[in-house]
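FIELD: query
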Amino acid sequence: MKNSLSKHVTTTSEVNTTILEWVQATEEFHCYHSKISAILRDGNSSRYADLTRTSSVGKSGRVHSLNKLRQHMNHVLEILMADMNNSPQGSQYTDNCSTSSRVGRLVTHARLLKEINRKISQELVLFTSYQA
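FIELD: result
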């Protein structure tokens, strides 16, 4: 049984909306990455990160979580950039429905980034509330 994809003609306004959503999600992602990097560069955070206790409780655990989150963010960026530069078939990580258009991939990337941004925001709220 073959899955047939309907031929959808993308309008200019749909493309513009997609690009705008992707740009907004990417900018937010970049701001979070910069914020996490700044926190991790802070002398006090580095001192706490060196502690052996890495549970999710306490400041050292939060710093450890932020460090792991930043590593995950770097990995996500690598995958998304590789996906946009690869063949029209897309990537196994981001192309679950065999969308072959770059617009389709931008939609998928924007959704992924929005979800990751939501999780990053939650982690930063936990970190800053623990610091207070």
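FIELD: remark
The chain is about 70% helix and 0% strand.
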